[in-house]
Structure formats: structure tokens, C-alpha cells
């Protein structure tokens, strides 16, 4: 199998890259080459790994370098860094007639908010008035389905939800520099913020599970023209998620609950309107029946409480992943203090 990945070193795409090489595929990564092999755990195995270092937004340079490096013929091309219609329109021009399958990585956040049914299938409506990111993904899907219907462009749309790897602790409320500051607060016995009342339903998917499902879609003729969501079948609450993280750290969980609307109003620069109200504050249960028909041997194997222990262990052993975020720490302290003051005012 000859696979080109645009990106290839992120949370999801790195796991897919490793899996492809393990299977002996010929894998080409197209990116700017700014991440070292050590930083994203470059794949090892019997496959062939090629790299094209260029800026995908430079269309002419990309076309030239791809032709020089690979001969420009692929079984599949997957773009993990396409966020706006202009991105997929460029890919369409670059790879039309040069790949048997084009895989667009969309997002489960594109599903209707507020949703008409908590159970999500690929047929659930797409509409998200709260998050521009999601609306752009919807627009990308619309363009790709149009050229599929009118010209036969061989698109497969993949919709991930909340996917994590060994380098990232998945959370609902965190700052611009990631999850470490929340982890540090738990380690130091400080209170952390959980959005809502913590009982909304959510799904966490390990990147290893995602990669196995994704690989089953590559070169799959039944996936052409289809949208497919890839998630675990495990449903957990946000209270359970934070408790599992605290347990993995060997610390008690001290948490308060704050409404998503308050958080969005208090910190517009963190875009909690999109990330919470338009995504994580909503209860969802994913129906993966379609995925399992397309990839019959797939079953998510990593339970969240087990997967998060591996993530915590890895991050604790790699200080370079521990990014301090004093601004977010101060924000948390202010929100917690304001909540306590409001409670005292009501009680008295």
C-alpha cells in the first residue's frame, strides 16, 4: 500500500504512521519537517518511510516536490491539516487523478449543536453555530462530496472525536499551553475545574485504537464516498474522566463544577464557547455500526482508565512535555475564588 499523509506527526497521524510502517506499507509524510523523529516517536518496522519537506500552502512547490519524490501516484492520500475549504480545494487540484482515495480528516464536533438525539451516527445533522472550526470542517465536507458526486473524486471523510496519545492528557478545561497545568494542580492538591456538573457523557479514544480503524479504511472500496466516524465504544462522564486522571497520578481529586456558559464568558480568549458549548459540554454516544461494517475486525481495545495511566506515566517521564501555564493557573484560582464568594453571599 502506498500512502501519503499530509502532516503525519500529530496525535492521530503519528499513530497511523507507525501502524503503516509496522504493516510494511510505503509511507510518505508531507510536512514542514519541524518535528524531530524523537519528538513524535518516528515509526519503525519493515515499511518504507519517505519524507517531503515543504509548505503545503505553496501549491506549486508541493506539486514539484511530490512528483520528484514519489512519482505522484498513490493508493491513498490523507490530509490531517486541512481546516478550511481552500485547503481541500488545493488538495483536489494537487491529487485529482493521482490517488485512488483521498481521506479528509473532519471532526465529530461538526455534528448538530444542540443535538436532536444524544446518539450520534454518520447520518446525524451537521450544524454548529458555536464553533467556527466545526463550520469550516462542514464546508470542507460539502466541497468534497460535491466533487465526488459530480466528478467521482474518490473521497472518504473521517470524523474523529476526542482522541489522545501518550503525550497528551485529554481534558475539558485547560489553557492555551495544554493539560500540564491541570495535572500540576492535581499533583499539588489544588482544586481543578470541571465544566457543567460533570455528568454529561463523553467518549475518549486512544490514538492506537484510532489508527487500527483508520488503516482498515485505507484502500477500502466500500469507504469511497462515505463519511465514517472513528471513536471508542466506551462512554464515560467528565467526573469519571477527571477521577481516572487523578487515580493515575495517585492523588485525590479536588474539583469544583462551573457552568460552561460562565467559563466562556469569563475567558473568551480560550474559546470555551466553541470547545465547550459547541463540543465537550454536550452529551454524546457514538454509534460505530458503520465503521464495524467497513472494518469488521475492528474493536477498540484500550479502556480509558488503562490508556490514561500509560499517558500519565509517559508525560511524567518526559519533562519536555510539561509546559507550565501560569496564566491559566491564575485564571483557575480566580474562578474558584469567585464561585466561593458567590456561594457565601447567597448563604449569608
Would you summarize the structure shown here?
The chain is an alpha/beta fold and 348 residues long.
Protein described:
- The protein is of the alpha/beta class and 348 residues long.
- The chain has two domains: 2-164 and 205-230, Rossmann fold, CATH 3.40.50; 180-203 and 234-285 and 303-338, Alpha-Beta Complex (UDP-galactose 4-epimerase, domain 1), CATH 3.90.25.10.
- Helix content is 41%, strand content 16%.
- The protein is built from twelve helices and 15 strands.
- The chain has helices at residues 11-22, 59-70, 85-95, 132-151, 180-187, 207-217, 238-249, 260-266, 272-280, 289-294, 304-316, 326-347, and strands spanning 2-6, 26-31, 48-53, 76-79, 102-105, 119-120, 155-160, 162-164, 192-195, 201-202, 204-206, 227-230, 236-237, 255-258, 285-286.
- Strands 3-2-1-4-5-7-12 form a seven-stranded parallel sheet, sandwiched between helices.
- Strand 4 (76-79), helix 3 and strand 5 (102-105) form a beta-alpha-beta unit.
- Helix 8 (260-266) runs antiparallel to helix 9.
- The model has no long low-confidence stretch (mean pLDDT 95).
